[in-house]
Design a protein that fits this description.
The chain is an alpha/beta fold. The protein contains 22 helices and 24 strands. Among the domains are: 153-173 and 374-384 and 395-501, HUPs (Rossmann fold), CATH 3.40.50.620; 191-360, Isoleucyl-tRNA Synthetase, domain 2, CATH 3.90.740.10; 527-698, Orthogonal Bundle (Isoleucyl-tRNA Synthetase, Domain 1), CATH 1.10.730.10. The mean pLDDT is 90.
Amino acid sequence: MQELNKPYNPKDHEEKLYKEWEEAGFFAPEAHQPRADNPDSNKTFTMVIPPPNITGSLHMGHALNSTIQDILVRYHRMKGFKTLWLPGTDHAGIATQYVVEKELKKEGLTRFDLGREEFLKRVWEWREKYGHIILGQLKKLGASCDWSRARFTMDPEYTKAIETAFLHYHKKGLIYQANRVVNWCSRCATSLSDLEAEYKEEEAELIFIKYPLADGSGSITVATTRPETMLGDAAVAVNPKDARYKNLIGKKINLPIQNREIPIIADDSVDMEFGTGAVKVTPAHDVADFEIHERHNLLVYQVIDEKSRMTAEAKFCVGLKTKECREKVVEELEKLNLIEKKEKFIHNIAKCYRCDTVIEPLISKQWFLKMKDLAAKAKAEVENGNIKFHPENFTKTYLDWLSNIRDWSISRQLWWGHKIPLDGVDDVLDTWFSSALWPFATLGWPQSYNLELETCNPKEGSDLETFYPTQVLSTARDIINLWVSRMIFSGLEFTGKKPFSDVIIHATVLNKEGKRMSKSLGTGIDPLKLIEEFGADATRFALIWQAMGGQDIKWQQEAVMAGKKFLNKLWNASRFVMQRIESTKSEIRNPKQILNSKIQNKENKNILEKFEETKKTTEELIKTYEFGPALHLLYEFFWHEFCDKYLEESKKMENAETNETLLYVLTGTIKILHPFIPFITEVLWSKLLLEKNNYLIVENW
């Protein structure tokens, strides 16, 4: 045994120790040594990291999720599994292009000044300089990923996988091109999926407009928050069950300002309770209106362009921005005495999830992936229990979305990304199209994929054969539909196997007031600053300590202090045991032999029983992904049962049996604490162990 310095300082150990682990190759599955006495030695355990964007830096959500994954990986590694935690980064098409364009703006340039080729060179330069930062930050947290297998979604091999997937879908007739209403970001100059729109509550004016009947017999009133779109109206729709409007169905109205006739139609989708129960139908600028247009074969008038300006087809306000046009339309309607009333109205407005620009729904020619059959397969896999969500209530989130799914708009009008592999197409694929392949493309797919037969035959001994499917995915609730569902149907489609068995949806870390953290508003907590001040172990402790089953964590800084105190308690208790054994000069047997002997003293027997029960329950909690309760259990046992009670009692029992019990329980507790607080436990193991040159990270659980 070695003497412990006083007190414990994480800065003396963490960086040095992480380097030792990495250089020794412990993070790679090749370090695995089969154990004849351990049936788990024949099993693999694989996780893929949710790939952070290359524009990202470590935030509290990353830190919590990475700690959860590291607990699982370290636990399975110690259990003897051949373990792989595969890391990597996502090219993040919109986000990265936006960041690089902001950098160009400082030089007075746009991407169009450079041209596509030169702009992409700039993006690659930016990626080489900044794109690896977050992976280095994960190392500071102690993430034991196999960095030798790190993947990037723009790597040549990964690009091949994406092209293969696209061509598979295209050959199968699942990909088509069509004019549809999409979410358009005028700042990013690209379409977005429904899931990439962020909705924010804002106060607006609900304006009630009278549309005169063409026969002069009266008018019908519609309510809208976007009066400028009336310039592109193709109809007014009412619910066929609405008695108020039965006698108007089939009549014509004279569209104000535009002076053209449009019909009053009946459609079941109209909500009789909203506004007046009569809605204006603008097929080119609303998804629901476009669907009404398809059912009724209406004309389509595109009055807003891709720069959010009014088109020539609008006839009125041509060239003005939509907001400017809105004011002029209202002014004109007031002159015509066609505004019935105005009301303040709180509604959700869609904004681009990257640049916060208000999204403009507009008709655009895009590539789509048919989702009906793919969604059905993905639903069945969860409904039959082959894939389970934890907590279970997120199953509903997943199934509801798949039950009401629209075809997926997979094309983006960006320069940074994977070009659609068809001649004459400049569009790139949606970032989520590439990340949907992550669990198997990172492992080498499509090694022997036969496009003709649609079969996947991994090479013998390859990573794809050895490590796929993975076992667990841990991620955030806001990308269940964006990412999790798409990985599931992609895995089934391209490998014939589910990509994972269990999905952990981790809690969201909020500030102490219960609001989302925001760097821009100054309400964020930087985990790197916590690591710098308190160390990685105390930071990990605080994150898991507060993850007690709820789906929100209101961050309490006191939890970090509690972690720091616990580490000191562990350090001081280890010092006591070491000094006790050294002072009595006891001959200590290997701790593994202690349970095989007959324990005489009841206090020794009692603490051993409590330890074994704690170990068993901890393992059960880890297996059911209840990490917070597991840490609380270990805390209670070690602080109260072992330190407060047993250590004090042991001072009256100076004999070899007590010393051996002290050492057995201490080293055993250090073992089962290792996945949670890996650095201090590894340091203590190196000081306490009786078998030299062994690392705790690969010690038998």
